[in-house]
Structure formats: C-alpha cells, structure tokens
Amino acid sequence: MAGSGLSNQTGAAIGSLAFPALGPVGVVAVRQYVAAVVLLAVGRPRLRSYTWAQWRPMLLLAVVFGTMNLSLYSAIDRIGLGLAVTLEFLGPLAVALTAARRRVDACCALIAAAGVVVLMRPQPSTDYVGMALGLLAAVCWASYILLNRTVGRRVPGAQGSAVAAGVSALMFLPVGLVVVLRDPPGLAAVGFAVAAGVLSSAVPYLADLCTLRRVPAQAFGLFMSVNPVLAALVGWIGLGQGLGWTEWASIGAIVAANSLSMLTRR
Transmembrane residues, as ranges (predicted)? Predict the structure, then answer.
C-alpha cells in the first residue's frame, strides 16, 4: 500500500516536469495511453459481446477517467501537488461519508469542510482556478467510484476498466497528435510523461490488485488517507513546493476526517 501511494504521487511529480514542453494536456494524453496499454493487456475485453446497457456506463467511465486526470494535472500545474491531491481526495471522502448515517460521520464531514474552507480562504496569492480544477477532480473521482461499481456489476473482471481506459486513450489521441505536430517535444519530456503513466497508472493498479487480496477493504480505505500527505511530501522534497502551516493543518484535517470515519466503522 505504501509503495502504491508513493508511486502514484511520485509519478504525478515526474509528470509535472514535462509541463513546460507538453503542458498538462499532453502529459495526461501520454498517461492515458500507458493506462490503456496496461489495462487492455490485463482485462482482455471482448468488445463484440457487450450490450448497450454495458457500453453506456463504460463510455461514461471513459469520459470521467480522462476528465479526472486532466483536471488534476491542470490543478497541479497551478497550485502544486499537495494541495491538488488533497482537494481531489474530497471525492472518495464524500462518497464514504454520504453512504453513512452516523453522527461521527457528520462530525467528520464538518472537519473536512473546515479544512477546505481554510485551504480556499481568500488571499492575494489564491489561485481560484486551480482550486476549482482540484474540486472538479474530486467530483470526477467520486463519479469514477460510483461508475466503477456499476461497471463491475455489469461487466466481468477488469474488462470494464480496460474498455474505459482504451476509449479514454482514443479520446486523447487527437490531442497527442496536435502536441507532437505543433511543437515536437524532446525525449526527456516524453520520458517524464511515460514515467508518469507507468508510476501513476500501471504500478498502483497492479499493486492494488495484489493488496486487496491480502488486506481488508477497511484497512485499505484507511491507508488511502495517507495519499494527500504523501503528495505534499513528494511535492516539497521533489519539486520544492513548500506549504505553510495553515495548508498542512488543512491537509491534516481532511486526512483525520477520513481516518476517523474508517476507524469507527464496523
């Protein structure tokens, strides 16, 4: 679980190094290509056997998958890795809290909301576009979770995720062609983008498959709370994106809200 989380955030940090040459859109396009290759190899979908009732959620999942990564990487470009991932983490946290009916979950929601208010408080340097992109990534992650449940019920194995990744990669194919033809990137930039795809898509996906066979779902969900902290640390150490004590307090509040909700769940 630690390797999966660290790989994911390190991949995002490495991908941001290619922003000057490829931009967030170009990096996301390469990441979608890598994810498609890995998931199609693992899932091996049978395209001719699906009905429209199966295709519909898979197509929606493809749109959400691409939008989620594009909004997250655009947010990273504007507000940094730690804050962007923290805002995106509100998506699965919201799904977990809205599915519960306990007083402790209501308290956790208030704690998380307080953290968001502090993060988005008006300041001369506040980038509201970057914040909005981070929140859009959160909405997409929540939608991704809900759609994955539907796809999992209608399509066997990992075929649904593989189809969604493949369709998403096809959607980004024109973007990749435009980026390459308009201003051909150097090998270093392409290498950074490919590394981001491998570390943020392939490695976490395969690691999570192995982990969920050995670790209870509740413990897995609890460890997910560490991702905003890992992102902030990777951004600080690897990219020099330091955070103030208020930002760290906000990240701590959001992480604490998810941890408390998971620890008190039966």
Answer: 21-43, 55-73, 79-97, 128-147, 159-181, 187-207, 219-239, 245-263
Cα–Cα distance measured from residue 15 to residue 10, given in angstroms and rounded to the nearest whole number: 8
Q: What is the pTM of this model?
A: 0.85
Supply 180's token pair: 């390459």
**Which amino acid, one-letter code, is at 64?**
V
Q: Per residue in 33-81, pLDDT tens?
A: 988 898 888 888 888 888 898 899 999 999 998 999 999 999 999 988 8
The pair of structure tokens assigned to 3 is 């390797």
d(CA 163, CA 172): 14
Q: How far apart are CA 199 and CA 15, in angstroms?
A: 10
Under DSSP, the state recorded for 62 is H
| Helix-, strand-, coil-residue percentages of the chain, each rounded to 5 | 85, 0, 15
Is 251 strand, coil or helix?
Answer: helix
> 3-15: buried (b, 16+ CB within 10 Å) or exposed (e) per residue?
ebbbbbbbbbbbb
Q: Which residue, among 203, 259, 211, 251, has the nearest Cα to 8 in the 3D structure? A: 203
Q: How far apart are CA 178 and CA 258, in angstroms?
A: 41
**Could you tell me the two tokens for 246?**
């208020």
Quick check: 168 and 66 in contact, CB under 8 A?
A: yes
Cβ neighbour number for residue 215 with a 10 Å cutoff: 15
- 173-to-31, 56, 104 alpha-carbon distances in Å: 11, 21, 46
Residue 138 structure tokens: 């959160």
Q: Residue 265, SS3?
A: coil
Unique residue bearing structure tokens 């909004």: 71
